[in-house]
């Protein structure tokens, strides 16, 4: 008889597909493996296999064939295996496994988000490192990396904004709890550093706000370059995160692109040119301190 296709259930249990029907593992003998129809509540069909070959079929299905579901199950298994065996980006793993999928089977697949999560969980379980992105367009940030736990039982989002896949991508980090400081403060300090900038990005940009007789780092942004358009987009994103933000004074280094972007974003703000940190090292240490806090 024909060979079967091996798949995995959502819980990682072995299944086979034969003639369009799915069977789940029942038991094994010294000579063969026995499988029962996945619709076990209403179907008594059974398979006996040796290796990937069917040596006996017992009974026949009493329900309609779901070829689309069977095809989708095979694809899900391929996705899981490809996630284990390659270092491809998550989107590439899914695309390669679904490229020739029928339209009916596409409707039977889990959602794209569920497939992505499946790849990440599979790799996390095996300790497989994520594939290094080659561009800001292909950079995918897993959901578990968008949050951290400052205290036991508390989960905080710290990726506050992502401009989306493009060569001019901007990411903004910190916790929602600090946004109240930015909302109320009328005095800001901003500066950037090239040191410790992650690959693919050009600059770490730090926004600090004065409150309660102290100065607090409240936002960290990863920028692709130092152009005027990038700074315009950065401060537009900041205003979307904190619409009530209304600084009266901003101190920053002597960079006209940033100066002009701040004037556009916050009309009437007083700008003060200064060597804010004295050296880039201080801005770098502030950023690394934040990362250390997230990783704890």
From TrEMBL:
Residue span(s) of domain MULE transposase: 188-270
Domain FLYWCH-type: 6-63
One of the record's GO molecular function terms: zinc ion binding
One Pfam family linked to the record: FLYWCH
UniProt key word Metal-binding: yes
InterPro entries, A to Z: MULE_transposase_dom, Znf_FLYWCH
Keywords linked to the UniProt accession: Metal-binding, Zinc, Zinc-finger
Superkingdom to which the source organism belongs: Eukaryota
Protein name from the UniProt record: FLYWCH-type domain-containing protein
Organism the protein comes from: Trichinella zimbabwensis
